[in-house]
């Protein structure tokens, strides 16, 4: 993952590493072994189906689910044990032995030809795979230079998960080709033999590997512990995420991941029997598996790219709801073609949810401390954060999928088939499988909607324009600013000019306010430079209170009122007296900061805040507001001092503040000068001076210059 939260393209991860010969060979071996792994899931479940073909659908579904459970359980129960054991073994020997043992187990299944042995073999294959995984995970990064280790990990994942659609496609094709001449049992035998050969090929590829480091693997945490620790420690909004200094409402994230994993697990658990009920047999089963795995890969890769500036939290919430709706469709429309395509969409939604979820849990963009999450700021290493996030999410997903696989087939058995009478003469046959999927879909939909509500960080901003702005224009949607009826008339004054500098953190307001003041003084004006909050004695106390990170639990309304109180004092004691003297007041922030931060940032009603501030300032509006526009990440990176309470807000908060400033500027173009703050300081100053020149009064009362023939005096504030 990149620092901006985008998942790096898989191709980019592998690129360049292929020139490292040992790594390339290991990658081929891992791809083959992963292909064998996914094929073994399909072949063993197909075998279970063939051995129980005389049973009724629910009976058959339960045996197939038992095989899936046997393949999932070792990962949940023994992962740390396998990791510790693998650390002591020679890597090459372990990998070759794992491939050979899996070969032997798969060949034995058709020879023994019994349900009990199929189950046992599935369990043993999964146990051996568990030993193989940590060895391979540690070996890839050890074969590349230090600065490519992350890429090696990513490339490993591409090999492991990229093999899934290939395996499913291969299985489908095999089932189709053998379908005419062979019965289900022979087809399952053929798939098992083919899988065994793939493992043998992987073993051969490993044995040809030069220079594999001998021992030592990365420690493996228990998925159960990871999942439950993460869920416990993040169920309250203010606690840190397991991954990084997160603090996002992770109950929303967890709910979302659980809902998606339940949906996918439910489909997988009954895919074989559902395909049979819909007349698709093994090719149909393979097609469903291919659609799901292809969709997943597509979603992980494409989702975050297509909707670049779209809120990751909204994206995750939407993807979860979309996955649940897909499952609803899969359960109700009993047509194989529709089921295959909808399963593909379910995969896409799950992939998008996974990519957005990893970004969020990794705290790289949307963590509680948007800056702290960057490497070097608070000691959190981006890679560690991402790896922990990956581990946590995978564990939650694994446990939820396991629950679905264990629960859905028996539920289908209990529900049995029903004939529902429709209006007129129509009838609708609701299979037990469909009914079970329907129940999971409803649970997932409710969880998805709840997750969306909890995750949504743009409440009040309509979804459709927000989506369209991101998808079509590649920008964050800024809602139009509501018309505010001023409670007090604009202040009328004879003399003085008021210029405010606005913008996000580190945009250069202080720098430019100072340069403008110097320039104005050079031209003979009395200039008062000031700032908010904290220009008066009371203001300084308020500033300390507002910006101290120790100030916790301050409500949004109280924060708004404190900024308004500071402003009231500022206007009464500094700005107004200066303007009455005829001075030019240059203020670093003013009302628009409250509209942008407390309004857009905190998602409170902007017109309420405008009204409050109009009252606090008796309607004093700047003659000119200079908005320095800079992406929040760049501004925050400019600041070297520790982040204060507001700067520590998540990235999404600062994005909203920026879109708020933009909306305010668009609503009042005459009062605003908007400048790209990434330009040089000198260029920005030049643009500001050009604009200020137009609103300046004559520094010397009209006629004085003619009378005295003197140049205007320079007055210091
Ligand atoms: N145009 C620019 N290009 C690069 N760096 C700049 C530019 N303008 C200011 N800086 C630097 O960015 C940092 C922040 O600038 P400054 O304090 O003026 O920003 P600010 O908007 O007032 O920040 P804050 O929100 O903390 O008040 C300073 O180190 C400053 O030197
Ligand atoms: C006036 C005003 C300010 N803020 C926020 C914006 C900044 O994070 C701090 C001020 O710090 P700076 O370094 O002086 O820019 O306060 C706000 O949220 N609302 C306001 O009205």
From TrEMBL:
Gene3D superfamilies assigned: MFS general substrate transporter like domains, P-loop containing nucleotide triphosphate hydrolases
Residue stretches spanning the membrane: 26-51, 63-87, 117-137, 158-178, 190-212, 250-271, 283-303, 390-412, 432-452
InterPro entries: MFS_trans_sf, P-loop_NTPase, Thymidylate_kin-like_dom, Thymidylate_kin_CS, Thymidylate_kinase
Key words, A-Z: ATP-binding, Kinase, Membrane, Nucleotide biosynthesis, Nucleotide-binding, Transferase, Transmembrane, Transmembrane helix
Family annotation (Pfam families): Thymidylate_kin
PANTHER family from the UniProt entry: THYMIDYLATE KINASE (PTHR10344), UMP-CMP KINASE 2, MITOCHONDRIAL (PTHR10344:SF4)
Function: Phosphorylation of dTMP to form dTDP in both de novo and salvage pathways of dTTP synthesis.
Name of protein: Thymidylate kinase
């Amino acid at each position: 993952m990149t620092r901006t939260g985008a998942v790096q393209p898989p191709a980019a991860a592998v690129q360049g590493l292929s020139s490292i010969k040992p790594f390339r060979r290991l990658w081929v071996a891992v791809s083959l072994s992963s292909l064998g792994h996914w094929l073994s899931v399909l072949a063993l479940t197909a075998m279970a189906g063939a051995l129980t073909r005389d049973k009724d659908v629910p009976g058959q579904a339960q045996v197939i689910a038992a095989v899936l459970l046997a393949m999932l359980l070792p990962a949940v129960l023994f992962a740390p044990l396998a990791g510790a054991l693998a650390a002591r073994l020679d890597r090459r020997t372990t990998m070759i032995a794992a491939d050979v043992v899996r070969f032997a187990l798969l060949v034995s299944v058709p020879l023994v030809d019994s349900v009990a042995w199929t189950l046992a073999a599935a369990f043993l294959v999964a146990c051996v795979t568990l030993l193989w995984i940590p060895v391979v995970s540690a070996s890839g990064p050890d074969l590349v230079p230090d600065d490519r280790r992350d890429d090696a990990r990513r490339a490993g994942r591409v090999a492991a998960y990229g093999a899934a659609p290939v395996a499913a496609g291969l299985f489908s094709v095999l089932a189709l080709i053998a379908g005419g001449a062979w019965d289900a049992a022979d087809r399952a035998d053929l798939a098992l033999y083919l899988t065994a050969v793939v493992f043998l090929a992987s073993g051969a590829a490993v044995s040809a590997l030069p220079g594999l480091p001998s021992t030592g693997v990365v420690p493996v945490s228990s998925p159960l512990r990871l999942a439950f620790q993460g869920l416990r420690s993040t169920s309250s909004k203010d606690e840190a995420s397991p991954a990084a200094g997160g603090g996002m409402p992770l109950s929303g994230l967890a709910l979302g991941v659980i809902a998606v994993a339940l949906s996918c697990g439910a489909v997988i658990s009954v895919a074989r029997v559902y395909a049979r009920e819909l007349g698709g047999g093994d090719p149909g089963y393979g097609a469903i598996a291919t659609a799901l795995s292809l969709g997943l890969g597509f979603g992980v890769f494409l989702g975050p790219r297509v909707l670049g500036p779209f809120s990751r939290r909204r994206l995750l919430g939407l993807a979860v709801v979309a996955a649940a709706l897909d499952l609803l469709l899969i359960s109700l429309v009993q047509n194989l073609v529709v089921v295959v395509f909808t399963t593909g969409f379910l995969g896409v939604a799950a992939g998008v949810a996974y990519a957005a979820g990893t970004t969020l849990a990794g705290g790289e963009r949307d963590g509680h401390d948007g800056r702290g999450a960057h490497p070097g700021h608070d000691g959190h290493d981006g890679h560690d954060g991402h790896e922990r996030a990956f581990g946590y999410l995978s564990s939650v997903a694994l446990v939820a999928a396991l629950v679905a696989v264990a629960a859905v087939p028996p539920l289908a058995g209990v529900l049995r088939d029903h004939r529902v009478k429709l209006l007129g003469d129509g009838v609708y046959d609701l299979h037990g499988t469909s009914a079970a999927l329907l129940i999971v879909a409803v649970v997932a939909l409710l969880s998805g909607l709840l997750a969306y509500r909890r995750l949504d960080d743009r409440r009040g901003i309509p979804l459709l324009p927000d989506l369209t702005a991101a998808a079509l224009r590649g920008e964050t949607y800024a809602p139009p600013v509501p018309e505010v009826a001023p409670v007090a008339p604009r202040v009328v004054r004879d003399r003085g000019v008021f210029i405010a500098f606005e913008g996000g953190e580190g945009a250069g307001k202080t720098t430019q306010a100072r340069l403008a003041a110097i320039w104005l003084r050079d031209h003979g004006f009395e200039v008062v430079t000031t700032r908010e909050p904290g220009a008066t004695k009371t203001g300084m106390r308020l500033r300390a209170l507002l910006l101290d990170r120790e100030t916790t639990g301050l409500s949004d309304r109280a924060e708004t009122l404190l900024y308004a109180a500071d402003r009231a004092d500022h206007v009464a004691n500094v700005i107004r007296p200066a303007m009455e003297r005829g001075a030019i007041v240059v203020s670093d922030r003013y009302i628009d900061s409250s509209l942008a931060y407390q309004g857009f940032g905190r998602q409170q009603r902007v017109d309420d805040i405008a009204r409050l501030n109009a009252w606090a300032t008796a309607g004093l509006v700047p003659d000119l507001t200079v908005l320095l526009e800079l992406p929040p990440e760049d501004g925050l990176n400019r600041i070297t001092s520790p982040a204060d309470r507001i700067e520590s807000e998540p990235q999404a908060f600062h994005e909203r503040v920026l879109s708020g400033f933009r909306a305010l500027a668009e609503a009042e173009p005459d009062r605003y000068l908007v400048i790209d703050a990434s330009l040089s300081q000198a260029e920005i100053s030049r643009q500001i001076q050009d604009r200020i020149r137009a609103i300046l009064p004559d520094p010397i009362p009209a006629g004085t210059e003619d009378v005295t023939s003197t140049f205007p005096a320079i007055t210091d504030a």
